[in-house]
Amino acid sequence: MPFILTWSPLTSRPGHVDAEQALTGTEAGWKAWSDQCKVTGPYRRFVQRSLITLKALTYQPTGGIVAAATTSLPERVGGMRNWDYRICWLRDATFTLYSLMSAGYFDEARDWTNWLLRAVAGDPSQLQILYGIAGERRLPEVELDWLPGYEGSRPVRVGNAASLQLQLDVYGEVMDALHLARRVGLAPTEADGRCSAR
User: In sequence order, what are the beta bridge partners of 143?
Assistant: First the structure.
């Protein structure tokens, strides 16, 4: 039995969506995207599956790429190292972009660069190691004490205090991603030049 789960603001009603048509359209869209993969050889199917996962971490309205679609999954069951990774970590995003561009996907790099320029707001000296999917700078870490956590692994966290950390390697990772984008033919932006000049 097909069904649609949808959301809309209280001030408007969601429009009608035909479940079968939406599913067909979604499958066709992902297949068309996957077919653009430039990787050949016996492992192409596995590479495509991995690239689909990476693409699914991209927030289409802004171009931001989250590190993972999870929060509070422990490194070890019962442990306390349960972080929120539904955040755009620049280092992780550059590795994702490197994989996508190496396989022939360039729109994601262009979208991410535009997202980065909005997030940084034009001043590379204020670069953070992570941002929200819409470029939010403040990502306070909050512990949700009333939630039990995965198999009792506490605390459950939302946000990430790592936004306050200084990690100098992030500059190199961002520059490497911008350099690769230029090498594969993406036109440099004025802001790329400003970043390079500093």
Answer: 157
